[in-house]
Every structure is written in structure tokens, then in C-alpha cells.
Amino acid sequence: MSAARLAAAVDAFISYSRADGRAFAHDLRAKLEAEGLTIWQDVVSETPGEGWWQNIVEAIEGSAVMILVFTEGALGSQVVRDEWMHARKVGTAIVPVVPEQGLLQRLDERGERLVPRWLDRLDLLILDPAFADYAAHWQRLLEFLRQPPPRRPVPFTVPPLPGEFVHRPDLERRLLARLVAEDGFSPLAGARALIGEGGFGKSTLVQAVCRQPQVIEAFKDGVLWLTLGEDAGEAAVARALNAVIDALGGAPANSLAEARARWAELLQERDCLIVLDDVWQAELIEPFLRVDSQDPQRAHKGRRAWVITSRFAEVSRYLARAEDRLDVTEMERDEAAAVLVNFVPEDRCALTEAQRASLRALARQLGEWPLLLGLAGSELRQEMIGGAPFDRALAWVQDGLREEGFATFDAPDAAGDPARWRQRALSANVALSLRRFESDERQRLFELTIFATDTAVPAAVASRLWAATGGLSARAADKLLRRFDGPFLRLDRASACFSFHDVLHAYLSASLAGDARRQAHAALLDAYNPDGAAWHTLADDGYLYDHLAYHLRAAGRDDDLRALFATDDWLRRRFEQSGHIYDGYLSDLLLAWGEVARPRALAQVEAGEAPEALADCVRYALIHTSINSLAGGYVPALVARAVEIRLWTPARALATARRVPEAEKRAAMCAALAAVLEGEARQEALEAALAIGNEYQRAEALAGLAGRLEGEARREALERALA
User: Are 536 and 572 in contact (CB under 8 A)?
Assistant: First the structure.
């Protein structure tokens, strides 16, 4: 069932732990249905099969309210936590309920409260019949379900945790203590950094902490994840800033300087956590940190925290205190062994103590390096799935590593030069994993590295590439991609997209360098466009339009990239494809401008040649400025009327409002749209008004909106207008 159909059919989604909340959730559903409400509960509503999580996602997005059942099991359930995070991300209202009032006072084995302190700030409904105010709390729940507040999505762009994830309690506690105050829900501002070699699990560690409920509650305006990577430059920083600006409801900027200013405006009054992942160049951090206002009278403005992950200690210069740096090295012995245990097939995971000891020994031999643990664990799993008993599968892994020249971490030379050992160890582990594949299959794997590390690539795009380079059918390509899942890449079955770990991506990329790499990009482009037609005449498959400029650049087809902006045809197609929003086209323009035209113009000047490429720079600047000027030229009343008669969609009108450059005109546009928008769209108008940088104009827009909003949204608009 689609989210759109669910939206009209479901009043509430019940989130609970099956360990100890099933009976309560079942009874609650029955009572609410008796009140005439439609309820989604997994045991009666979920479609069984591989896509179970997609069913959950669609149900949450299609429900007006999530009822979050707090039990002891729910407090420790990753599934419940993921459901809660997705509800916040898409704006589904959440009402927390407690089935047993004694839970709030219960102590754990250490004598501490079982219920964390951050829950104290929530308006909990106690649905325990023994509770004195049970009847009143029940009525409050019914009122909330019958009159739910409008959706208010909270940006949460943190990647999912891997299936074999193992907690690292000490490091997680230390990072958490640097992000959330002792009260359990107040955010701590400032920058923190996790420093360590590639593959030590820095990113996964931060992903786990970002999912802690107290972090999500503390940084109530969003948790934003930005991956910079080895090849990041000014253009990449501008794109990253614009991605966050868009997530926060602002209009993309024309330049890096403008993006920095707009980023700062949007974050000034927000409690946000920003993760800058995989930073290679310390100087690229600075644009993300310039947020605070120079106005000393506005001490109440939002509190922002940054977490930086990097292999390089130079990023520490942006930290205010030495204790804000956390060094991430190998895992603890038991943690590393637990990773390997997680790779043992579920139906055969009843290991003896001797077998667990052998995994601890293997973990030590692998240096407790998470990346190697994943590679070795994948091999162990494949052997056991193939029918080998545990001991034989383990021996196969160990013998194979020795044959590939692997020296264990206990070897004398490993301690003397650990970086060199890690590179040799990675080479041996990758070589072992590659044994399962023929030479042509290995080439297909190397070809996948043409896709950017921070991009979720649809499996169908890999199939298109391999059809061109290896003649694979769609079925054969799908089977091969599934075989690569685990040891080399992560394939998300729900979205049918894959991505690489950056260390593995970098290592495998070395096997597809120079002309071979350019030819692979060219093969993908030719597979999309075998007849050399104008790109705007081709249909978009959900990937092509958003990544065409990247692949043209990587294939060395700069003239084709330049041709996209020679006429208005690509602009019109991108505009239509993006739902009548210019953001995608402007992203393409920035790439052509920053990575082709500008470097070419500078090179021509340095060589004493006529700077012909400067004409392209001027043209791109004029196009960028003209698009924003278009938004400023619309009459607010006409835009509102266009929405009212359905000539424009609400999304198009809101995107136009965000792009209006002058704060006064943007405020007028938001106020006009509030008169004709309803529900979620009106809430988005509020978000657009909150994104106005000028405080006076923002207050005027919010005051105008307040009269057309209801409940919590009206209260927030008035509070922010009067702040």
C-alpha cells in the first residue's frame, strides 16, 4: 500500500517491542479501533517478506500519529529506535505512552533509574488502569489522535548502521558526554573530532551515537550528515552547504561565500548536530563552523555541535579543548570477536566456548580492525552458508590469509610499522575475498568504483553499466551484485541501492585507473545514450539527470558538459524533472563552473593565453543570478492564486518562496501562501519563514503566518516572532 493511500486510512502507527510490549499493543489497538480509529500494528498489518522495513517506512509516513509504547524492551530496541527516528524525519507526530506506571521508578542492576532522564521532558501518557489519572490520560490520547498536529519533518540524514554492527560502549559514552549535558537532554555546543586510521569505525561509531534518543531530543532541529571525502574542494563544500540549506528550508546559494552566509543564517536559532565525515583537508572545515551571530544581545540563539571524523590530527585545531578530541583505534577484544560472531548464520550461531575463543584469536590476528573483521567475517559466512561446519570454515579463512601472505598483528614487524601492516593486511583480505570471483567478475567490481563514495547507487544503474562493459543480462547483474554485498559493498534490499566503504572504494579504485576509469564512465554514458542524442531528450530513470554532470566530467567530456548550458533545453528538463525546482540544475551549473570553467580560465591566464573560459564563468554567473531574480519577480498574490486554482503545486510555490533573494519579499510570499496552503504545506510555509535570515523580516512573516496556523505550530510561530 502506498503512503498516499495510507494517509487517508490510518490514524496511528503503534511502535513497540515484541519482547515485552506485544500484549499491550494488541489490546491498545483493539480499544482504539473500538473508538472508530484506524490503527497500524505490524503483526496484523505488515506484509511478510524481504521488504518488511519498507512496509514499516510506508506505514509511518502514511500515519497521522505514532504511538510510542515505552517498555523496558523498547528502551533497548534498535527497531523501535529506528521507527521513532523515521517518524521524526518525516514529521509524523509522536505520542509516548507507558503501560505500567512503575516503570518510571524502576531501577536497573546498577541501582540507577531504568528510564533515562531525557524522557522526563516528554509529555508521557500513563495508560495503566491502576494509575489514578488513567481516564484523563486515555481521553488525552483520543483527543490527540482525533486532532493530530500538522507534520513537522526534522532533518535526519545519518546513514543506516550496518547489519553486523556492534556497540563500542566506552567510546560511545565518551562522545555522548561531549554532546549532551548531564541533565540528559540539553545540547552542548562546539566542535568535537574523532581521529583514527581509515576502517577503524569512526563513521559507524558516530552513526550509533547520532541514533541515541537523548541526542535526537537534544538537537531538536535536526542531525545533519555531510561526507566530504578525499577529493573534496570548494565546489564540493558549496554543494554540501547547499544540501543542508535545502534540508533546513533555505534557497541554494550562488557561490561558496553566499552559501556560508546563508548556512550561518539558517543555523543561528537552531539546535542542530552537524557531522562532517571523512575530512581530508582541515581547511575545508572552516566554512561549516562560521555560524554564530555577532550580536551579543542574542545569547538565547540555538546551540550547535559539530562532530568531525578524520584520519588527520590537523583537524584538531578547530577544537576549543584538548578533551574534545577522541582517538579511535582498534576495537576491544570482545567487541571485535562479537563482530565476527555476528557473521555466523543465525541458524548456526550456538557456538561453543572453544569456538568463541578461536574467533577472539582471529580478531586479535586481524588487529581488531573493523574493516578487516568485516572482510574475514563475510568469508566465514559464505563458507558456512555453503555447508561447511564452523571449524572447517574458520580454517579455510585462516589458510587462505596465510596463502595471500597475511602476517598476523602479533607479528614483530606489525608493531613497528602498523600503517604498513594495515595496508598489507587489507591487501591479503581483499585478495582472499576476490578468490570467489573470476577475472571478468573482478573487473565488474572495479568498474563500480566509478560511482562516488557518498552516493547510494541504484542496482539498475550497475546493471546498465555491466550490460555495456561485460554483456551481462539484468538477472546476471543482479546476482553478481548480491555476491559483492558484504565483503565489498553494502546493498540495501529495501531501496535496491548500494554504496562502498571509502577505504575499500579507494583500494579497489586503484585497479581501475587512468584511461580505464574514463572509459568506464564513458561506457555508462553511452549505455544511456547510444545514439548521441541531446541529453535533454532522454528520459530520466531517477539517477541519470542527477549525476549526468558528474559522469560527463569524469569521462573527460567537458565539451558535452559545457553544451548543457549553451541553450535553455537542459534547464527546462531539469526544472520539470525536479518538480519545477531549480536546485538540480544549479548543482550541475556549479560543477561546470567550479571544476571546469574556473580552473580552465585560471590556467589560461597563468599560461599567458587569452582567457576564453572566462566567458563561460560570466555566463554561468549570469544564469545563476537570473534564476534567483526570477523568484524575486513573482507577485505573492499571483503565486498564491496559482496554487489555489492548482496551476502550481504547493511544492513549486514553496521552492519559489525559498529562492526569493530579498528577505522582505520572501516574507510576503510566505504570508500569501499561508492563506491558501493547508496541513503539511502550511507547515512548510512556516519552515520557509523560519529560514529568513533578517530577524525583523522573519518576525513579520511569522506574525503573519501565526493567524493561519493552529495548535503547536501557532505557538511556535508566535514564540519565534517575539524572540
Answer: yes
Cell of 39: 490503527
In sequence order, the 6+-apart residues with CB closer than 8 A to the CB of 4 are 62
- For residue 48, is pLDDT > 60? no
Say which residue, 99 or 584, is predicted with more confidence.
99
**How far, CA to CA in Å, does 391 sit from each of 368, 370, 381, 383, 398?**
20, 22, 12, 10, 11
The predicted model scores a pTM of 0.73
* Residue 450: partners with Cβ closer than 8 Å, 6 or more residues away: 465, 512, 517, 520, 521, 524, 551, 554
| Cα dihedral 637, 639, 642, 643 in deg (nearest 10) | -100
Locate 548 and state its grid cell.
549526468
574 three-state secondary structure: helix
Residue for grid cell 532541529: 221
Q: How many helices (H) and strands (E) does the chain have?
A: 36, 13
pLDDT attached to residue 622: 84
Rounded distance between C-alpha atoms, residue 559 and residue 544, angstroms: 18
Q: Mean pLDDT across the stretch 96-108?
A: 84
The set of cell numbers assigned to 681 is 504545506
Strand ranges (E), 450-584: 457-458, 489-492, 497-500
Identity at 216, one-letter amino acid code: I
Average pLDDT, the chain: 84
**Is the per-residue pLDDT at 376 higher than 80?**
yes
Cβ atoms 259, 253 nearer than 8 A: yes
Map 568-603 to HEC letters: CHHHHHHHHHCCCCCHHHHHHHHHHHHHHHHHHHHH
More confident residue, 88 or 142: 142
Calpha distance 462→528 (Å, rounded): 12
pLDDT-derived band at 42, boundaries 50, 70, 90 = confident
**pLDDT per residue as tens digits for the range 685-702:** 666 676 666 666 667 667
Strand bridging mode 125-126 / 63-69? unpaired
The dihedral over CA atoms of 388, 392, 394, 395, expressed in degrees to the nearest 10, equals -140
Give the Å distances, CA to CA, from 494 to 6, 464, 490, 547: 19, 20, 12, 22
| Closest by CA position to 304, among listed 276, 323, 278 | 276
